[in-house]
């Protein structure tokens, strides 16, 4: 919410403060934040009573900071009553959160984040994450991928890999994030960091997607023209499916391969079915492409 956008001002909703959470002012900022951050990280929450998103964020901040049990402190500053340091830090909208270490700001974010992302933000300040924290980051990354937040997913997986560069689920998730972002080279580099025999659904999907991209024709027009002239030109349909798979259009690729199988199950030594299984692997076992495609394949094969 931009500073100056003020709806009817409700009271600031705040959960009970512990010893690691306090209200700050411009007068106490140097002691509470600058000096205190020289011995432990300090998070500063710039808020206001009229700010709705602040009321969502503050309880999550307080909960996560309290759970850190002294590894970090939280100082909350009402920008209406204390505009000085908010102005110096160029706070344009609230909530805005800064992290201070050794007397200087080292990280920040704006807006109300879910508790899982607040936790990840705090864990960046409190040192290497333990196994459960890494699991939380991986879960956050997977959740972000599911909602299409590729940037958020990559950030979560990267944080996990900073602590454990050999973590297989994190490597698989990062590779998948690169693929969804269209960066095949980045995905290939991440896949290469994992042992060849490492097993993980996202890692397997990335390997399959890279194999499909490597084998894909560079254009589709010629094959589409052939199909328009002869719908039973299985070779043209197969090459078109390969091209679509290489582009990441896995549903289109699966549809064409299923059409070949429906019309000629054993065409070209079962090539369409073999390629279809690779497409399912690239999409991921829980994807709609794989789930719906397997049902259609079963219907074709057992009808």
Within the CATH hierarchy, at the fold level, what is the topology of the largest domain? Answer: Glutaredoxin
Oligomeric organization of the protein chains: single chain
Low-confidence stretches: 1-16
Termini separation comes to 58 Å
Q: What's the order of the H and E elements?
A: EHEHEHEEHHHHHHHHHHH
Strand order of the largest sheet: 1-3-2-4-5
Q: How does the overall form come out from the CA principal axes?
A: elongated
Beta-strand proportion = 5-15%
Primary descriptors:
Thioredoxin-like_sf; TPR-like_helical_dom_sf; Glutaredoxin; five-stranded mixed beta sheet; Serine Threonine Protein Phosphatase 5, Tetratricopeptide repeat; 303 residues; TPR repeat; disulfide bond; disordered N terminus; elongated; alpha/beta; transport; 9% strand
Topology:
Elements: E1 21-23, H1 29-35, E2 42-47, H2 52-67, E3 73-78, H3 83-88, E4 96-101, E5 104-110, H4 115-125, H5 131-146, H6 150-163, H7 168-180, H8 184-193, H9 201-214, H10 221-229, H11 234-247, H12 250-263, H13 267-283, H14 288-301
Parallel strand pairs: 1-3, 2-3
Antiparallel strand pairs: 2-4, 4-5
Helix pairs in contact: 2-4, 4-5, 5-6, 5-7, 6-7, 7-8, 7-9, 8-9, 9-11, 9-13, 10-11, 11-12, 11-13, 12-13, 12-14, 13-14
Domain Thioredoxin: 2-127
Keywords: Disulfide bond, Electron transport, Redox-active center, TPR repeat, Transport
InterPro entries: Thioredoxin-like_sf, Thioredoxin_CS, Thioredoxin_domain, TPR-like_helical_dom_sf, TPR_rpt
